[in-house]
Amino acid sequence: MAEVAPGTRPVLRMTGIGKRFGTVQALSEVDFRLLPGEIHALLGENGAGKSTLIKALTGVYDLDTGSVELDGTPVRVSNPHQAQRMGISTVYQEVNLCPNLTVAENIFLGRELTGPGGVIRWRKTRRVAAELLARFGLTLDVGARLGSYPLAVQQLVAIARAVEYRADGSATDRDGGSATKVLILDEPTSSLDRDEVRVLFSVMRRLRDEGVAIVFVSHFLDQIYEICDRMTILRNGRLVGEYRVADLDRVGLVRLMIGKELGGLEALAETDRPPVGDPVLRAEALGRRGGIAPFDLELHASEVVGLAGLLGSGRTELARLLFGADAGDSGRLAIAGEPVVLRGPHTAIARGVAFCSENRRAEGIIPDLTVRENIILAMQAARGWLRPVPRDRVDDLVARFIAALDIRPADPELRAGALSGGNQQKILLARWLITQPRLLILDEPTRGIDVGAKAEIQKLVAALAADGLAVLYISAELEEVLRLSRTIGVLRDRSLVARLDNGAEVTEEHIMRTIASGAHR
Amino acid sequence: MNAPTTVAAAPATATTPRLRRVLHDRRLPVAATALLFLMMYGYGSYRYSFDAQVGPNLLVNNCYLVIAAVGVTFVILAGGIDLSVGSVIGFSGMLLAKLIVAYHVPAGVAALIVLAVGTAGGALMGGMVQVYKVPPFIATLTGLFLFRGLSLVLSKEAIPVDDAGVTQLAQYHVPLGGGTFLSVGALVALVTVAVAAYVLHLTRFGRQVYAIGGSEQSALLMGLPVGRTKVGVYAVSGFCSALAGLVFVLYIQSGDPLHAIGLELDAIAAVVIGGTLLTGGAGYVVGSLLGVLVLGLIKTIISAEGTLSSWWIKIFTGVLLLAFILLQRVIGVRGTNRA
Ligand SMILES: Nc1ncnc2c1ncn2[C@@H]1O[C@H](COP(=O)(O)OP(=O)(O)OP(=O)(O)O)[C@@H](O)[C@H]1O
Ligand SMILES: [Mg+2]
């Protein structure tokens, strides 16, 4: 255990926290302490209980056992509103804002800048919101609806909102609340690119220097080592320990997190056989105005093509065109040698294209269906609703994929919404893999997935490709793209600017430079 | 640390031509309702040569519905529904009449009591929704039966209100020039709309109503006082219904236990035709005013036609409702976020 310098009183101390959901003991006997002016990593595998601990602290869930002290005084937090007024500001794992309201409104909701008589001062609100976002390197139309922006932008707005809680003390004090003492960020970086992460980190450092204690959750170990001072590790809902970041190396950290040595990070099977036969998919000058400039792309069986590019470079837009989720307005597309016009995802699905969306909350998981029902969804849709898949076959398949992807808890009858974020992502993956597609488009498949499972998923993708599947792999993590792909498409400003054949000379550096310069070929 | 790079992100949708932008504008449904109203009015004037008072009369004859629709707008915006409106209106009229006639309470005091009772009734239903998680449909259905029953308990017969002050107020005309006028009730309705617009757009409470309608879960996690706001919304609706009940008494000068049966459905229809999303989170109270005026205009035109039976009013209302719900679908589908 890391020693806390004598005389430093934790700003927050949680003791003996326990929380149970039905049969799942999500947390038991967890202690957690947070010092003023530190950035504290909360670590653990998917389903370890990180988000639950945060929600228990901020009053989303009631505690079964345990107590919370804030600044040395015992407190009972019964809802997020109260938490915020006590100075605990939180960005939860899934972006939780109101898409129907404008960006500026979302930032100031609940603490609007008001003038005499409680009248909201809209002009000022918009101005301050724009200034605030500028600090995050964002220039947005703050009067536009939040829902019209991509997920990463929404994520940044959510962070800006949480941070703002202290930035404008005047707005908080009138409400009787206090300025933020504790800032909690649950996987804030999962949908961000490096540049945004850099900006976020600089904001976090500034806050830390101002004495705010920050809890940071992330599955990116690099980020943990870059920004955090101390860490608390959870495993299966129990406390493993509390360490100074400097005292524990990565191997040790991963071992503590997963409880065993991590295999699977060794190099993946090489897949550099030259592509044979007709491409599974060929796009010629395919494009969509306002989405992505016309591009050429070929995907062969047994080939993984990676797409790299910054946020907003058109990665997702490209994928959506290939899947028919958006209609192209120029160019041609052929799947398995046959020219097709995609009139919607169903035409693509019928031809063996599967698309695993990056936006799992809006387009993916149906929280009220069970894990089994969620997994079977795409397969059933492909067969048509009149021909149900036989139940024993379903059970068999579902069990296989739960095991293959290590979905936890391994209970097909649980509500999907009750699973941790990372496990929901695995369900989505299973949903598409089960349809046995010819071409699998994966948009950020490992977002929010822990180190162990990430390696598993990468291995799985490589194995699927070796079995003949064509894969389009989109990821903000260059390392991952590099490791998996035979060919890498580089996107910039909504056009495909380069295609690199993966080889020894292609490095992250190289890709970054290509993105920056946008050189052709 | 380098200077932060700027990520200039345009809304995913603003990149496409102007038409798309218009389709995304939240005010589009209200504009459509306004246009519809003008067209119908133009048609009516041309075909039946409306006199100048027809316009003001739309408001005079439907002032209670406007007020009720304002309350329902709050509830629907927050993602709920209120079915108790008609019963609360009927009950309020009865309570007012009973207080004045049987207990000789001064009309002003009686009115205040009625407003307080209506607000409390609304808050009670809100409490059921919030605290006991009773679905709004059920909670307000309870209210529907309860208040109708209570009106009958007060009296089985209509109670005429022959208070001199009330009569004076009822007959008072606010001249608009050109021989046209508004009634006191119509004026009250306009003020109600103005106050509601102010509350919805310029106060915290108002924004929270929209936030909850957009996503209650998010609103909760954003640390908004969701419980308070939800109860508040039903209280507002209760208040508006009571006020509508008072205005109704002014309009017909009696309380009747069977008044305003089914009026909640007219109010909901007006709100929807006014462009408010039934699932909550989007809409304008001015739209609800327009919605009531459109409904009133249908009645006026059909009775001016003379040969059509009054069932056509219902049929047109139904068709309009369908059209507006479809319009919402179209806008809703286009407006959905994409990552
Ligand atoms: N609302 C809920 N109902 C039932 N079970 C739940 C609920 N929320 C979480 N759980 C369970 O509690 C455990 C801990 O989940 P939690 O979301 O805290 O994990 P996590 O550490 O945040 O994981 P991740 O890295 O994937 O986000 C999981 O087993 C999960 O299935
Ligand atoms: Mg989590």
Automatic annotation (TrEMBL), chain A:
<dbReference type="GO" id="GO:0016887">
    <property type="term" value="F:ATP hydrolysis activity"/>
</dbReference>
<dbReference type="InterPro" id="IPR017871">
    <property type="entry name" value="ABC_transporter-like_CS"/>
</dbReference>
<keyword id="KW-0677">Repeat</keyword>
<dbReference type="InterPro" id="IPR050107">
    <property type="entry name" value="ABC_carbohydrate_import_ATPase"/>
</dbReference>
<keyword id="KW-0813">Transport</keyword>
<dbReference type="InterPro" id="IPR003439">
    <property type="entry name" value="ABC_transporter-like_ATP-bd"/>
</dbReference>
<feature type="domain" description="ABC transporter">
    <location>
        <begin position="275"/>
        <end position="518"/>
    </location>
</feature>
<dbReference type="GO" id="GO:0005524">
    <property type="term" value="F:ATP binding"/>
</dbReference>
<dbReference type="InterPro" id="IPR027417">
    <property type="entry name" value="P-loop_NTPase"/>
</dbReference>
<dbReference type="InterPro" id="IPR003593">
    <property type="entry name" value="AAA+_ATPase"/>
</dbReference>
<dbReference type="Pfam" id="PF00005">
    <property type="entry name" value="ABC_tran"/>
</dbReference>
<keyword id="KW-0547">Nucleotide-binding</keyword>
<keyword id="KW-0067">ATP-binding</keyword>
<feature type="domain" description="ABC transporter">
    <location>
        <begin position="12"/>
        <end position="261"/>
    </location>
</feature>
<protein>
    <submittedName>
        <fullName>Sugar ABC transporter ATP-binding protein</fullName>
    </submittedName>
</protein>
TrEMBL record, chain B:
<feature type="transmembrane region" description="Helical">
    <location>
        <begin position="310"/>
        <end position="331"/>
    </location>
</feature>
<protein>
    <submittedName>
        <fullName>Sugar ABC transporter permease</fullName>
    </submittedName>
</protein>
<feature type="transmembrane region" description="Helical">
    <location>
        <begin position="174"/>
        <end position="200"/>
    </location>
</feature>
<keyword id="KW-0472">Membrane</keyword>
<feature type="transmembrane region" description="Helical">
    <location>
        <begin position="267"/>
        <end position="298"/>
    </location>
</feature>
<keyword id="KW-0812">Transmembrane</keyword>
<dbReference type="GO" id="GO:0022857">
    <property type="term" value="F:transmembrane transporter activity"/>
</dbReference>
<feature type="transmembrane region" description="Helical">
    <location>
        <begin position="231"/>
        <end position="252"/>
    </location>
</feature>
<dbReference type="GO" id="GO:0005886">
    <property type="term" value="C:plasma membrane"/>
</dbReference>
<feature type="transmembrane region" description="Helical">
    <location>
        <begin position="109"/>
        <end position="129"/>
    </location>
</feature>
<keyword id="KW-1133">Transmembrane helix</keyword>
<dbReference type="InterPro" id="IPR001851">
    <property type="entry name" value="ABC_transp_permease"/>
</dbReference>
<feature type="transmembrane region" description="Helical">
    <location>
        <begin position="28"/>
        <end position="46"/>
    </location>
</feature>
<feature type="transmembrane region" description="Helical">
    <location>
        <begin position="58"/>
        <end position="78"/>
    </location>
</feature>
<keyword id="KW-1003">Cell membrane</keyword>
<dbReference type="Pfam" id="PF02653">
    <property type="entry name" value="BPD_transp_2"/>
</dbReference>
